[in-house]
Batch of 2 targets.
Target 1
Amino acid sequence: MDRLYGNVKEGHHSKWIDEAIYANDIGHDVESDNTVYALAGHAGLKVNTKRSCRAAALFLGLLCLLLLAGLVALVFLYTRDNSNWKTERVHLQTSLAEEKDQLNKTLALQSQEKWIYFRRSFYYVSSTRKPWNESRWDCRQKDADLEFVRRWKTRMWIGLSDTEKEGTWTWVDGSPLGSQSYWAKSEPNDAKGVEDCAEIHSYDEQQSWNDAPCQNEKDWICERRVK
């Protein structure tokens, strides 16, 4: 009986040990599986973290490129505007210098003898008589040209001739006479075929012009316009 009880007790103990070992093995397997899952999750977290870092780095790189491009554009615009401003300033200074020089010339010319200022022009009245060509040459030496004043009480040359083409009267600046003229009655008549220069020969404002031989000596008036 004791032997039988002992065998039963021993068998029961062995069974308990086997169950404990089995449970321990199962627990160990579960723990191992949990460890594997944990390691796998950690590895996945690292992969996701690396991907996020790469995306952030790419975004920051693109942002830096955009900022750099904007900075370059701003520098270019500033340089261009600054260059344009300097160019405009130089042009303005040049224009002011030219205006100043012209004003000085005008004042100097006005102070000279025999120059008369009238309606933005200076007029020089000759004190001698010369042929038409010489009269014009004298005016051009004074940086002026032949002109006329209607009510001048003496015969004098005006800057009008048809020396280039007979019958086609032009002013000394090359412009045609046009429809407005002050020829005396029956003038110009090109008497004897030698009258190619115009003069003032009467006091009539409407009919004061006459054509005359260019080699005749007469008074003249130079005009210099203020620019």
Target 2
Amino acid sequence: MAVLSSCSHSGLPILHELEAVHGITPTIEHYACVVDLLGRAGRLEEAEILIKKMPMPPNEVVLGSLWVHLELGERVLQELVQMDPQNTEYHILLSNMYALVGKRDKADSLRQILKKRGIRKMPGTSSIHVHGQVHQDKSHPQITDIYIMLDEMIRRLRVAGYVPNAASQVFSGCGSRVGNVDELEEIEQALFSHSEKLAVCFGLISTRAGSPLYIFKNLRICQDCHSVIKMVSDIYNREIVVRDRNRFHCFKHVSALVLSIELL
């Protein structure tokens, strides 16, 4: 990933060489990285071709890298919606992309279509294993202590350079409008309350310093939570393993090493 990120012009050839030369099967994160690089370099046609040739359906990680290129993102998502009209995820992503760039009428129109179909986004929930027991997040009796720990954690993250990724909240489907400072602050507060962050906080206050944390998430982990947990692993000297809907994410505190293992 580091090699791809540093090569704006040679990232695409390196991606093609991963499997052919090095025997590494590219993951969705590899494709997202190259799509982002191509977009930033203005090579939008190549980015679109790459998305269409991907061996797996593009998810919010790939499509989220296109939100600054509305025309391309809109065209790709509209084609995906036409190809798979029953896939509500594409409808939601397109709606959120409209919302993120201020096209609220289009966003609301799409959401009304989903509402009429009786389709709702599944809420994200996380659980953590502590002392042989499974603990849930917002319904936990220690929720006050968890939020106190959350405040401390966010403070330490900001000192370490953390900047909330508002796009992650919009693309999660939980926040739809970024129009002014108040709305941005509201989105950031919603980001801080993502279930996996709360699970991490409970783990930090309930286990010995340095012990590993094991968290289970029913949906994909968002980009902001991925970045936060990587930093938390380093700051608090913890190994953190998160299993989301698609893969295991293993965060090691030594230089914040991250390993993702896709589920079969």
